[in-house]
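hey team, just a heads up i'm posting the complex here instead of the shared drive bc the drive is being weird again. everything in one block, sequence lines first with there labels, then the predicted structure for the whole assembly after. its two chains so it's a bit long, scroll down
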Amino acid sequence: MQVRMAEIPRRKKKKQWNLFFLALPLILVVFMFSYVPLLGWSLSLVEYRPGLVLKDCEFVGLKYFRLLLTNMNTARVMKNTLIFSLLGFCCLPLPMLLAILLNEINSTRFRKTAQVITTLPHFISWVIVYSIFFSIFSTEGMLNQLLLSMGMKRQSILTDRHAVYWFQTVVSQWKGVGWGAIIYIAAIAGIDQELYEAARVDGAGRFRCALSITLPSLMPTFVVMMLLNVSNFVNTGMDQYYIFKNNIIYNNIEVLDLFVYRLGLQQGDYSYAIAAGIFKSAISIALLFIANMTAKRVRGESIV
Amino acid sequence: MAKNKNHIRDSKSRILFSAFNYLFFLLLILFCAYPLWYVFVQSLSGAHVAGKGVLIPNEFTLTNYVQVMELRGIFHAFLVSVARTVIGTAGTVICCMLLGYLFTKEQMPFRKLLYRMVTITMYVSGGLIPTFLVIKAYHLTNTFWVYVLPSLVSAYYIILIKTYVEQLPASVEESAMLDGAGVVTIFLRIILPMSMPIVATIAVYASVAQWNAWFDNHIYTFTRENLTTLQYTLYQYLNEAERIAKQLEEGNVDERLLTLTPQGVRMTVTMVTVLPVIMIYPFLQRFFIKGIMIGAVKG
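-- predicted structure starts here --
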């Protein structure tokens, strides 16, 4: 931006309305799909039935919000959401560790190969991920056939209520850890090489360099990732949990997003579901503000 | 002398560390790649024998692939997936490029307001149910356009494009303007050709997103069989397989279900669905990485 400004002699630029009208259809698309749904929030205050318009619906005030806050399901769903988020939070150092270790690999070819293969799962759809894990971990899957042929007992992890939390964490790490490392790899590439040379002259080995130069240099990136993670604590998304859910583990895998889906699209309780959605948005926006304020205080720069 | 000694000790532990490091990454590669390899092996296996076909195909055969070709609707589903990927990606790239470019023009009235309006959608959205109701109200359910229209303008891509176009040299555009070229001409003839790296980046992101999408199919078009995508077809097979697994566990198997889609066929459909991504990914990896880089710089 600044470069462009410097090159153009500063003169008062005349507004060009043709630019505005060129953008208008696209702005309209944004309005239609991102802003009009916000009007739907008003339906949380009425008894909405499909086919009715807002003014024909009975006004119920905050009934659904009260229901939401007093319902036992909400506590369970919040607990699930927080457990998945916390486990994800604990795994945050993994991509950074991966990047540091990858940096210590001398062979360029091996490094590139490792990078391609570990980042690939990020671009595989959840349906495929489920298909793969189902073929390995289902009761008829590879793992159980191996266990049986070795004379051991069947394990059904996919329907194990107690394994849900850690198993889903493993799955999401499988999908995301390599891709998460990319940003740290780029940050390592940006570290001033003279720092390493100076340290080597002072007798520091590779390990010392990694500990005293690479790791501290990555800290700002890590802090940003941490704050972004916190701001997304309730936004677990639903693809993964929707696709891995089954009747046996449902109570443990149901996250907030899944809860909204069930209330709205399965039970047809639109007003209740919208209230739950608003509840989620409110927490999410509050967390974003907190994270942003922390970022401003810690590094003098906001994250959004 | 002391230094030399130090050097030797250092290199010894270094070798040890290196060995462990390579080993670690070999294991990690295995962890990431083996599940896919297993699916590949299964798709090429004949009979399923316990413990066989884990590393290499058991009774190598292509019958699964032949069977998949003959599955009802699979070719059609493939075409739908291709269509939504091509049309959706082209639409997203053109719309985001144009809007991103326009947002760099200071002469545009309400530029800041509109830009803010677009970027805020990254953080605030109506959520699942209101979006669902709105799309229903627009009569987009059970149409092909529900795959394309909602993702036409993406705030994240717009930010990437705006950042990229802003660092292009302004002089080329200036001289074209002095020659009397209009905005559209400048956009098509100058900005677009100069922005090919970012176009490629957004195209790969958008196309993978389109190819992988299944949830819109699940909630908006599930009653229209001729709009079923490859991903959703696989999802349906999986649901079926899950039912079979459950029946096996309970011991009352419906024989009809058992013959519907054997494991090998399901694995083959998985392979066919994931193959396009695996094939393009290693070659286009740098574009994927570029996307996250520009995004990171921008914060």
